[in-house]
Amino acid sequence: MTGFLKELHVGRAILVLGVAVGLMGCQGDTKGDVEEEEDLNDAFAELLLTEGKADGATCSGVRPPDNSGFDGRIALTFDDGPDLVRTPIVLAVLKAHNATGTFFVNGKRITTDAHRDLIRQMIVDGHIIGNHSQNHLNASNLSADTWRTEVQLTHDILAPLLAEAGLTPTFFRFPFGSTNCTTYAVVTDLDYHVTGWHIDTADWCFNSSTGGYGYCAESTFRYVPDEYRANFPGWVLSQARAQNGGILLMHDTKSYTPENLDAMLTELEEAGFTFTRLDDVDTFPLLNGVTPPRQTWVGDPCEDHSECDFLSGDVPGFCFTYQTSDTNELFGFCSLPCDGYCPDLDGTAPTFCAESPTPSEGICVSKAYPQNESCATIPGSQARDEDRFILESGATPSTALVCVPR
Q1: 12 and 92 together in one domain
Q2: Tens of pLDDT along 230-259?
Q3: pLDDT tens digits, residue range 211-234?
Q4: Which domain does 114 fall in, by range?
Q5: Where are the alpha helices (DSSP H) in 51-112?
Q6: Which of 251, 276, 301 is where one domain is finished?
Q7: Where are any strands of DSSP class E within 290-380?
Q8: Is 295 in a helix, a strand, or coil?
């Protein structure tokens, strides 16, 4: 650790940010199999190092482009259907809560007139139908041509059904959130909006028989805290509060979700959250192809906290003030507290979690990137290698060239 921050004064006490990360959890037909459960855990562990909380990953199937500004609004999404028994129960619960959802469907499940009629009814009721590929395969393991076929087969099923209502397929979600830049480009070239999530309910784990129905065992999915392993609504609410809303991931193909959906939605409503649609451009502008005015972000020059009026989840930005070692001039840049990872904002330099002057706490800094002219736009700073601050995040040790005070 080069320790530049240990010699500086922070303008206020820094609270360590506890980030509730959207967890992996898409389920296929064999969700109960040990092998697939291991794949889900392994995939999450890999994504944790590369996605939105980790230094600006691109071509992500998990990280949504919009990461803040939800104002307590939640978009409800369901993967892997349709199911002729369970999906109608989900629809009834949503209707009782005056909520609409987005259903990411697998083409292999739409095989009969009854399935197609169910899709038609969902469209009439105002729900969004998204593409989740034909066979729920891991896109990162497939060639571009094979993956294009997977996407196109389901597109060809959905397009005529949506056309009856004057609509076109718009949203796509990768199975397991897993992709690479090649398969990602296949989807965007077909004019789909790749849709990740902010809140993973881990409903498939609560559906597992391991440890008992309604209990998410650590051996099945280790990323649910022990205090929530038997508390599905509480687990979801904890993530919603951390993110202040966002895109919520569920599945409509296992019995646990429809049986517990009403309780979960009720708890969210009682906590002050409201439900919106995935095509809500005010809540998810970037997902819907709308570029809002650039907001203040980590690395922007500042003089006091009021100039850093942004949120990451429910954590406010602050102005980190410092004196340069050469001239003793006072400068500042906007920052966030961190542990291992920092959020990124499209159009700005990626961020990095470094150690703060306060023991056992971290601070987000900008990487030296073209967006800040290699730190030239941050007064009183220079580019220097710093080690990643790691406390309890489990992040992999890393070093990055970042903008730090002179």
Answers
A1: no
A2: 999 999 999 999 889 999 999 999 899 999
A3: 789 999 998 888 899 999 999 999
A4: 61-276
A5: 86-96
A6: 276
A7: 311-312, 315-316, 318-323, 330-335, 337-338, 351-355, 362-366
A8: coil
